Amino acid sequence: MSYPRIVILTGAGISAESGVPTFRGPDGLWEGHRVEDVATPEAFRRNPALVQAFYDARRARLAEVRPNAAHLALGRLDREWPGDLLIVTQNVDDLHERGGARRLLHMHGELLSAWCTACDARHRWTGPLAGFPPCPACSARALRPDIVWFGEMPYGMDRILDALAACDLFVAIGTSGQVYPAAGFVETARAAGARTLELNLDPSAMSERFHERRLGPAGTLVPALVDELLARAPA
Ligand code: BV8
Fold first, then answer.
1. Which atom of ligand 1 is nearest to the CA of 199?
2. pTM of the prediction?
């Protein structure tokens, strides 16, 4: 059977081979920071300078990293897959875009976007937000990282849940399955009758919920999966 409708969920593991640190590994991004000190609205209210610096450093590092074979393979799938496809990423880097993905949704926001809490405008932003530069739209010094923090509603949930309800194949790549609601997507896909596949370096918190699991680096497993899917692409 070919899979006309695919939903792919990616996490920090797909960017690991590009040199972007994951969150919960031994050298995890949260290393030196407690999540509640840098990735919650309360943290931003309590210590805006610390939170701005945490994201400024990660935004600046994007210039030093490049998409890896997994990002490029998903870009190829996006170009060549004739059926429905939605790539939902928890990642806030721009490596999927630079790898060629277009049917893409950043459910946890993006490092390269700034959000004005005064006028609600969003702006592509490549520089620092420390020092609260003026909003290009309203001039208020009220820009924050356009990132979904813990306790905030992820972006695109309606579109994601619609895609999951209709999909024939759900693939999770490089995510530890510890953050909701993303960690629950496999259940939604199973309830829709989709086949579910997990690609990860190690078993995750949700591995048992997948029909099939492949262990290994994304840079190896994702190109192989894309070749497999395109060989069976629907006419
Ligand atoms: C919300 C942005 C509700 C910040 C992030 C039950 C239901 C609903 C919510 C909850 C719930 N229980 C608890 C909650 C609250 C909370 C939550 O899930 N907490 C957890 C910790 C228990 N969820 C939320 O707050 C979410 N919001 O629920 O809102 C709501 C309702 C109404 C009104 C308002 C609100 C929001 C969650 C989003 C938080 N923001 N990121 C930032 O990036 O700085 S989460 C953060 O974790 C990142 O986005 C990251 O992507 C995400 C998940 O981590 P992973 O991507 O999986 O990365 P991790 O390091 O954990 O794992 C890496 C994996 O890669 C590993 O498995 C490893 O084996 C693998 N790997 C490594 N190398 C490779 C590899 N795989 C392949 N190849 C390799 N080379």
1. 77
2. 0.96
